[in-house]
Give the backbone structure.
Amino acid sequence: MNKVEIFKLIKSIKGYELSLKHDSLEKNKKNSNKPFQKFEFLGDRVLGLVISEHLINNFQKNTLDEISRRFIHLVNTNTLAKVFKHHDLHEIFKHQLDPKSNKNSVYADALESLIGFVYTKKGLEFSKTLILELWKNELNTLPQKDPKTYIQEYSQRKNKTIPSYNLLEEIGTKHKPKFKISLQIDSHYVEGEGISKQKAEIAAAKKMIKLIQP
């Protein structure tokens, strides 16, 4: 099924627009009257079940760590937004969001809302078929471990300890902060900088990987 066929299939389900109408269109409504959020809540669970089942059935020779990495990749915000845009679903997504805003997280929510709606109308087997078609280009992806996970596993394996990131400096303004973080493992010492503590820690972890890799 190509993306044109998927697009037509979704539009053929009566009432699909309800799941793709973002709350920004009706800001004055109470949360209880906003179906988008409820479909999103349900869709998140349906997606998790379908992807988990697919990975267990199709990657039986993988370790649990590898299956977990696959799962995290397939259900994270960036992948959902990528799938949403690849299939042109943004063309039927109704909202009043700031044009300059980063819509990836909203697109991810919208895709989960759509999945939740489809599940209520068509059931699990239909939803499973649709999800696996939508995710077809991503299903075989085994992402690399993120730098902090790599460093943590290395430190635990070698020294039986969790690595410690230390804040050295925080400069800049509230809206444009800059953090400097240090990381030391044995005799190896690095510093990383970023616009958040998380990004600074990742930068430090990347530098450390270069030092400890053979």
User: Anything to note?
Assistant: The mean pLDDT is 86. The radius of gyration is 21 Å.
